[in-house]
Design goal:
The structure holds 2 protein chains of 2 kinds. Chain A has a domain of 205 residues. Helices cover 76% and strands 3% of the residues of chain A. Chain A is built from 12 helices and 2 strands, in the order αααααββααααααα. Chain A has a two-stranded antiparallel sheet. In chain A, strand 1 and strand 2 form a beta hairpin. In chain A, helix 2 runs parallel beside helix 6, helix 3 crosses helix 9 and helix 4 runs antiparallel to helix 9. By secondary structure, chain B is mostly helical. A two-stranded antiparallel sheet of chain B has the order 1-4. Classes of the chains: A mainly alpha, B mainly alpha. The interface between A and B is large, with 42 and 45 residues.
């Protein structure tokens, strides 16, 4: 976390007040039930991995195009549903994963080409459009796939348990999710920092007009970015459908998770999304384990606290 | 500034003599309406549209005049409705915490709770601008929905609180279609007049100034943040009053009342009618309620969201200033055609 000395100075009184309390709670958890604590941390990390997969696409699209895609949860569900159908037809989980990615990416490309591309700069209108899309998509899913809850079966070589210290046995697939999100995070970082397209995307985030005037086809760049962002949501749909499940209403859940994660982490920043996902994933899991009724309140308190001290999120730049 | 709501800002159209005449005529129609219409049309269509319009008016005021698009107006209405249900309902099977206050105590208290929470949400949301505000208010609203769903002590969890009805006063059952319609009409009329009046006060004009150019207003010495929080509080008051009526109309309140769908519906209603003028909220509400009740005849009942989502998409894409804007453009082209 990069905080300027001034910012840390502003935090200090609050930090000194909160830290001992947190330390006390942590000590109690450690003594009370070490295995439960370790299990909660691991579950929190895997949930954070899943949230990062969803939120990274959201923040990528926002960073470049300033489109707040409130249909991001719908893209997540699209990936999940299409992936499920593809997996059912072929019996292969990897095919499902690919199908989820491709379907959502395709939807993202269509949205960019036929909707957002026509109203560049009208952010509020674009956001309203995404709301309309999410209403319509949710109803279409209900029509095609019904109100049932779907769950994917992970391939055999990924199911089973792994022996770990403290928690004894842990589901292998959850560790795969964690690894996958790390790999994708790394991949995104490499894409943005080490490739030509990434360079153009970063330049576009800073100054679109200048980028366009030096001869880069910004419209094409937008389509590519939207495809990656939406595709990541679809991929997360299949992964989320394997760890948890896919059902109507999940779109809102993951949209909320993405919103909170990027608000906490800072809009448009991949590092911020990772940090936000860690905070929110852990907070939600700890809330569910230790205070089941008020799990969502923890998430909310974190969001309010971060926004109170850093209105642009942890890694956000001031607008 | 380009993240701002450029497309919804426009100066108020000048009121003309013919529009005054139209207003009086419309008012008369609304007064006579329940005597002609069936109880279904009075209660389910008339009263519902008026209440939904009142809640949407609070958003229309915030978005149209302040440039603040808040999705949490239904949450504010819901908080006030929950407060009404908890404070006012004496039904023993309802929430475990029911105080059974008399209506004259419960109603102001519920409205105060709603207004206060709107001010709190506003204080949080004004730290951001434009599209960020949508995200924060959406997050706040969904968080409240999950809280209401999971908390059983105060909100009675998934089931919510039922049997919240208006009092029987002066020998009139205010739940009956005719009195309830008039109650809703009086509240809606008062809210509409209040907002219309507000727009011409120094505060209203300053608020429109912060919408059009916040930086310039700041340079001129206006406290932009204070204006925005005040706008949230005022809109919250209207939404809270609407919330009390809404819980009376439904007779019960449950997490579904403040769910994401309901939150977004308020936005759909406000945008459908048009954000430029306060009365748009009521036109949007009427169209919404009519679609809700009669979309079954066009398509099957389950596909209502497809219809309303499609209509909403079409309005945002082709007529950003809503049905009112569409009507105005049609009338202008008609006037031009007839004068040519």
């Amino acid at each position: 976390m990069k905080l300027s000395p001034v910012a840390i100075g502003r935090f200090q009184p609050a930090l000194w007040a909160v830290l001992p309390v947190l330390a006390l709670i942590a000590a109690w958890m450690l003594v009370d039930n070490t295995r439960l604590l370790a299990l909660t941390v691991l579950n929190g990390l895997t949930l954070a991995g899943l949230y990062f997969l969803v939120a990274s696409g959201f923040t990528l699209v926002f960073g470049l195009m300033r489109v707040v895609n409130l249909a991001h949860g719908s893209l997540f569900l699209l990936g999940g549903y299409v992936g499920y159908s593809a997996g059912l037809a072929t019996g292969s989980w990897l095919v499902a994963l690919m199908a989820g990615f491709v379907a959502a990416a395709l939807a993202g490309v269509l949205m960019q080409r036929f909707l957002f591309g026509r109203m560049v700069g009208q952010n509020m209108r674009q956001t309203l459009i995404t709301i309309g899309i999410s209403i319509v998509m949710a109803d279409i899913y209900l029509w095609v796939w019904g109100g049932d809850t779907y769950q994917f079966d992970a391939p055999d070589w990924l199911t089973g348990t792994v022996a770990l210290p403290l928690v004894h046995k842990y589901a292998e697939f959850r560790l795969v999710v964690l690894a996958l999100s790390c790999v994708i995070g790394l991949g995104l970082w490499l894409l943005l920092n080490r490739t030509r397209v990434g360079m153009m995307i970063r330049a576009g985030v800073d100054d679109k007009d200048m980028l366009s005037s030096i001869g880069v086809d910004v419209e094409r760049l937008f389509v590519i970015t939207f495809a990656i962002g939406a595709g990541l949501a679809g991929l997360a749909g299949v992964v989320g459908g394997t760890v948890l499940s896919v059902a109507p209403g999940e779109d809102v859940r993951y949209l909320l998770a993405s919103l909170v994660v990027v608000l906490v982490g800072g809009m448009g920043s991949i590092t911020g999304a990772a940090m936000g996902a860690l905070l929110i994933g852990l907070a939600e899991t700890f809330g569910q384990t230790y205070a089941p009724t008020y799990g969502v309140v923890f998430t909310f308190v974190i969001m309010v606290a971060v926004l109170a001290f850093r209105p642009n999120g942890l890694m956000g730049k001031s607008a | 500034m380009n993240i701002h709501t450029n497309w919804i800002k426009d100066s108020e159209p000048q009121a003309t003599v013919s529009s005054h005449r139209l207003t009086i005529l419309l008012g008369l129609c609304l007064l006579v309406y329940p005597w002609i219409a069936s109880p279904f049309f009075t209660f389910q269509v008339g009263a519902q549209a008026l209440i939904l319009g009142t809640i949407a008016l609070s958003l229309s005021f915030l978005a149209g005049q302040g440039g603040i698009v808040s999705l949490s107006q239904m949450t504010v209405a819901g908080i006030s409705g929950y407060a009404m249900a908890i404070l006012g309902s004496a039904e023993p099977t309802a929430a475990s915490l029911n105080l059974g206050w008399p209506w004259w105590l419960a109603v102001p208290a519920a409205v105060a709770v709603g207004t206060l929470s709107a001010t709190g949400i506003g204080a949080l949301a004004v730290r951001t601008e434009g599209i960020y505000t949508i995200m924060i208010t959406l997050a706040v609203g969904v968080a409240f929905y999950y809280l209401a769903q999971q908390n059983s002590l105060l909100f009675n969890g998934f089931q919510g609180i039922s049997n919240v009805v208006p009092p029987i006063l002066m020998n009139v059952d205010w739940r009956a279609p005719l009195p309830f319609y008039y109650l809703a009409l009086v509240v809606a009329g008062a809210a509409l007049s209040a907002v219309t009046y507000l727009l011409r006060t120094p505060f209203g004009i300053a608020l429109q100034g912060t919408r059009d150019n916040a930086r310039r207003m700041r340079a001129l010495g206006f406290h932009v943040t204070a204006h925005r929080v005040a706008a949230h509080a005022l809109a919250g008051f209207i939404a809270a009053v609407g919330g009390v009526l809404w819980v009376w109309y439904q007779g019960r309140i449950s997490p579904g009342t403040v769910g994401t769908g309901a939150m977004i519906n308020v936005l759909v209603v406000a945008v459908l009618g048009g954000l430029r003028r306060p009365v748009g909220a009521f036109i949007g509400a009427l169209v919404f309620v009519l679609l809700q009740n009669f979309a079954i005849d066009l398509v099957s009942r389950e596909r209502f969201n497809l219809v309303i989502g499609g209509v909403f998409l079409a309005i945002v894409m082709f007529s950003p200033d809503g049905l009112l804007g569409l009507w105005q453009r049609l009338r202008q082209s008609w006037v031009r055609a007839s004068s040519a």
